[in-house]
Amino acid sequence: xxxxxxxxxxxxxxxxxxxxxxxxxxxxxxxxxxxxxxxxxxxxxxxxxxxxxxxxxxxxxxxxxxxxxxxxxxxxxxxxxxxxxxxxxxxxxxxxxxxxxxxxxxxxxxxxxxxxxxxxxxxxxxxxxxxxxxxxxxxxxxxxxxxxxxxxxxxxxxxxxxxxxxxxxxxxxxxxxxxxxxxxxxxxxxxxxxxxxxxxxxxxxxxxx
Length: 209
Hints:
- This protein is α/β, with parallel strands linked by helices.
- The protein is 44% helix and 17% strand.
- It has helices at residues 2-39, 68-76, 97-106, 122-138, 161-174, 191-195; strands spanning 56-59, 81-88, 92-93, 110-116, 147-150, 180-185, 203-206.
- Strands 1, 2, 3, 4, 5, 6 and 7 form a seven-stranded mixed β-sheet that branches.
- It is globular, with a radius of gyration of 26 Å.
- 24% of the residues are buried.
């Protein structure tokens, strides 16, 4: 009947309206949950057995206020190695690098160094390697030390990324520093290319949750 048809249309309209309201509510809840997830930081103490083991930490000038006591605490918490930023580009040197390395060493921690790369050509790569080598030679750093090229800056994006990094390594080799590793991330545009220069077993790779 016509009355039944009207009721059916009204019912359908009500259901549709309710469904829309539910979707909007769900969307709001999801938005709030996402917002909370992106603004809160999950922090835990090194040595917490309910969390992933922390074998290595890296430091740069941002951590220059750390004291000998801090490095001693890292050692006591199970950390084995500290990777110190030595240089960046063709002229910058971390002013805290030497002191950071000494304190880590005194705490009984292994010390590695990393260079933050910005080169886009092989010529620039050689210049940056010379900058790192100058720091190492000046401070009589052992040629056995493990050196990382920090490949994350977009300025290093080029189809020649692998060749450029090999030029960087070649220059370090000429100074006797032949122990190489690469720092990169899963999102780095030429990740696989730079990894090929050292092999997958010598990669420090960031993969954030």
